[in-house]
């Protein structure tokens, strides 16, 4: 009897949707479920808070409250805490290296224009992105070169041996990033090519550059390369370093890109081919836009690694931000402030890398077109 | 019913040249002989349904027609153009042949409208505005114009497949190939896609459909082809094909798919 009853059932009234119980959403519920879910959980939470307290309070005390901020020499550092006078007194050198101080406005202009272009490209509301991108890639590098290096339009020549500090770090990183990405994409496409010669060349190139340490590459570029090229070809040391970094990073980039290309289903290419699109259009319009979106975390990871690797140019005698701060620490007048120096370098590197990271996350959300939750 | 009208459309005039001609087609995957001596001639306006067990080479055969698969022996002629190794010739044939895939293969990073306009703009070099107007016309026809600015990921499977059909139509192809267009769909959505296909058939489009929708085959097809182990086993008009199959394998296959 009862079985028959359960076999037949008709629901006539549909159930209206109700709000979730109030204790399962909101800040209090979050705290309760994540920090104070039980006695042991609560204990750990309190212990962790105590550890944070032990770490953060003295650090803040040292870095901010007890720190000395203004002055010109170490005598001005009277407080118990950090001596930021070391940084502020030498800030110009940290930013511009050995660039002549009456010419630093040229560097300022270049980086102001660069920041403006980047901001224009990054803010979605601003129009004419295509034109700005063309200007950034085709016009700006020449302007930057003529301003930074000089030698024409009545500007005094400032040789690259006088470049240094944050400015050199940025030049290395930006040129490396901008050149390594397209080269990496070409290498990745080549490695997936069905043409045996193209494929072999790309495989050999990628495996060679990935197999050697960057320090070796820079050293070779600086010391060995001049031995092989004819005497009259005298490539600038910075240019050689840039070529080394670009080739090295493009090999890494190629593998990131290849990973992204492999994630795109074959059906996408087939659909493109069935519509009569040729190889390059298929790649440029269908596969790469999707693959690059998937690759954003990997690409930015490579960018960040590249940015930090630029400090290796120290070994060929180029003074990037880290090297120039280290050099400053060796100054007898400022002995003993290495914590401040390294903390400053770390902060600057972190700001740049973290900005790249945040922007990439924003970009991922912006380009998200599916309906699934992120 | 509609068969007669469109068959007469397809056969009128002096255009006796077949739309698609496969002659002695053979294909191997490594050592595996997937297509064996396929001979098939498709008239303009003819609707052909291809069925058969999985692995019988049906999809491979129609994918050879637009060179998504390469065949090793035999000749393929589409609308008078022989399929050669020349990439220009292949692309010319692809512009004449629309294809609808089992898994839709819409481009997820583009909106529905952009999916449809991509090939007209980049392959046919038409102005964007004109291509969009034309695409809207086709989206209207598959009854999905109101979703034109959504992304494929926001649509149901049936809606996506209708968009895929519209996308192919935007190049005004002479032939449409359907590779199991309803196999990946929920039962509720199969009908909306089949309806669009039936309409297309009634308008006189030359169609080759690999499908297991036997109802569709009965109402629309001029000819049903049964394939097994890389060969065409039986070929007939739908009425005798379903009511009086000649080959034992066809009988077995039909009894299995129509048995319940």
UniProtKB/TrEMBL annotation, chain A:
<keyword id="KW-0812">Transmembrane</keyword>
<dbReference type="InterPro" id="IPR000515">
    <property type="entry name" value="MetI-like"/>
</dbReference>
<keyword id="KW-1003">Cell membrane</keyword>
<keyword id="KW-0472">Membrane</keyword>
<feature type="transmembrane region" description="Helical">
    <location>
        <begin position="130"/>
        <end position="148"/>
    </location>
</feature>
<dbReference type="GO" id="GO:0006865">
    <property type="term" value="P:amino acid transport"/>
</dbReference>
<dbReference type="InterPro" id="IPR043429">
    <property type="entry name" value="ArtM/GltK/GlnP/TcyL/YhdX-like"/>
</dbReference>
<dbReference type="GO" id="GO:0043190">
    <property type="term" value="C:ATP-binding cassette (ABC) transporter complex"/>
</dbReference>
<feature type="transmembrane region" description="Helical">
    <location>
        <begin position="105"/>
        <end position="123"/>
    </location>
</feature>
<feature type="transmembrane region" description="Helical">
    <location>
        <begin position="335"/>
        <end position="356"/>
    </location>
</feature>
<dbReference type="InterPro" id="IPR035906">
    <property type="entry name" value="MetI-like_sf"/>
</dbReference>
<protein>
    <submittedName>
        <fullName>Amino acid ABC transporter permease</fullName>
    </submittedName>
</protein>
<feature type="transmembrane region" description="Helical">
    <location>
        <begin position="201"/>
        <end position="229"/>
    </location>
</feature>
<feature type="transmembrane region" description="Helical">
    <location>
        <begin position="42"/>
        <end position="65"/>
    </location>
</feature>
<feature type="transmembrane region" description="Helical">
    <location>
        <begin position="283"/>
        <end position="304"/>
    </location>
</feature>
<comment type="similarity">
    <text>Belongs to the binding-protein-dependent transport system permease family. HisMQ subfamily.</text>
</comment>
<feature type="transmembrane region" description="Helical">
    <location>
        <begin position="311"/>
        <end position="329"/>
    </location>
</feature>
<keyword id="KW-1133">Transmembrane helix</keyword>
<feature type="domain" description="ABC transmembrane type-1">
    <location>
        <begin position="166"/>
        <end position="360"/>
    </location>
</feature>
<dbReference type="InterPro" id="IPR010065">
    <property type="entry name" value="AA_ABC_transptr_permease_3TM"/>
</dbReference>
<keyword id="KW-0029">Amino-acid transport</keyword>
<dbReference type="GO" id="GO:0022857">
    <property type="term" value="F:transmembrane transporter activity"/>
</dbReference>
<keyword id="KW-0813">Transport</keyword>
<dbReference type="Pfam" id="PF00528">
    <property type="entry name" value="BPD_transp_1"/>
</dbReference>
<feature type="transmembrane region" description="Helical">
    <location>
        <begin position="168"/>
        <end position="189"/>
    </location>
</feature>
């Amino acid at each position: 009897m009862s079985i028959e009853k359960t076999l037949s059932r008709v629901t006539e009234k549909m159930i209206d949707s109700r709000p979730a119980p109030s204790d399962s959403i909101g800040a209090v519920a979050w705290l309760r479920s994540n920090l104070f879910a039980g006695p042991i959980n609560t204990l750990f939470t309190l212990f962790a808070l105590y550890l944070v307290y032990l770490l953060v309070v003295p650090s803040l005390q040292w870095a901010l409250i007890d720190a000395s901020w203004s002055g010109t020499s170490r005598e001005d550092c009277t407080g118990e805490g950090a001596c930021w006078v070391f940084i502020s007194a030498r800030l110009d050198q940290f930013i511009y290296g050995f660039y002549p101080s009456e010419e630093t406005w040229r560097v300022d202009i270049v980086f102001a224009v660069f920041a403006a272009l980047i901001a224009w490209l990054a803010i979605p509301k601003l129009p004419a992105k295509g034109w700005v991108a063309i200007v950034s890639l085709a016009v700006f590098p020449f302007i930057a070169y003529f301003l930074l290096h000089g030698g024409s339009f009545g500007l005094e020549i400032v040789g690259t041996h006088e470049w240094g500090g944050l400015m050199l770090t940025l030049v290395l990183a930006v040129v490396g990033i901008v050149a390594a990405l397209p080269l990496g994409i070409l290498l990745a496409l080549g490695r997936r090519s069905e043409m045996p010669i193209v494929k072999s060349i790309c495989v050999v190139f990628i495996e060679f550059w990935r197999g050697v340490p960057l320090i070796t590459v820079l050293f070779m570029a600086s010391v060995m390369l001049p031995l092989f090229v004819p005497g009259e070809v005298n490539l600038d040391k910075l240019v050689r370093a840039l070529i080394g970094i670009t080739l090295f990073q493009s090999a890494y980039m190629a593998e990131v890109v290849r990973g992204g290309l492999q994630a795109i289903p074959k059906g996408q290419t087939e659909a493109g081919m069935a519509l009569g699109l040729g190889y390059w259009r298929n790649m440029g319009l269908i596969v790469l836009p999707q693959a690059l979106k998937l690759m954003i975390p990997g690409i930015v990871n490579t960018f960040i690694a590249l940015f930090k690797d630029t400090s290796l140019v120290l070994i060929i005698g180029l003074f990037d931000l880290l090297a120039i701060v280290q050099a400053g620490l060796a100054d007898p007048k400022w002995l003993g402030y290495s914590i401040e120096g390294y903390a400053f370098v770390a902060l600057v590197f972190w700001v740049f890398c973290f900005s790249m990271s945040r922007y990439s996350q924003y970009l991922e959300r912006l380009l998200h077109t599916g309906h699934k939750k992120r | 019913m509609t068969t007669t009208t469109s068959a007469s459309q397809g056969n009128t005039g002096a255009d006796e040249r077949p739309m698609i001609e496969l002659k002695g087609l053979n294909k191997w995957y490594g050592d595996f002989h997937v297509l064996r001596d396929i001979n098939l001639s498709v008239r303009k306006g003819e609707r052909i349904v291809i069925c058969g067990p999985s692995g019988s080479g049906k999809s491979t055969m129609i994918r050879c027609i637009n060179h998504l698969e390469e065949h090793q022996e035999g000749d393929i002629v589409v609308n008078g153009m022989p399929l050669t190794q020349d990439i220009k010739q292949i692309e010319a044939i692809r512009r004449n042949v629309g294809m609808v895939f089992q898994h839709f293969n819409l481009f997820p990073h583009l909106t529905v409208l952009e999916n449809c306009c991509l090939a007209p703009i980049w392959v046919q070099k038409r102005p964007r505005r004109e291509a969009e107007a034309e695409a809207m016309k086709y989206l209207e026809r598959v009854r999905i114009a109101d979703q034109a600015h959504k992304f494929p990921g926001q649509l149901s499977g049936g809606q996506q497949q209708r968009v895929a059909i519209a996308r192919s139509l935007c190049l005004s192809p002479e032939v449409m190939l359907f590779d199991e267009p309803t196999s990946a769909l929920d039962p509720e959505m199969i009908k909306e896609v089949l309806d669009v296909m039936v309409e297309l058939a009634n308008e006189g489009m030359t169609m080759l459909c690999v499908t297991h929708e036997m109802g569709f085959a009965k109402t629309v097809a001029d000819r049903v082809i049964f394939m097994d182990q890389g060969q065409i086993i039986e070929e007939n008009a739908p009425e005798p094909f379903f009511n009086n199959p000649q080959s034992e394998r066809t009988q077995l296959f039909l009894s299995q798919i129509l048995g319940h």
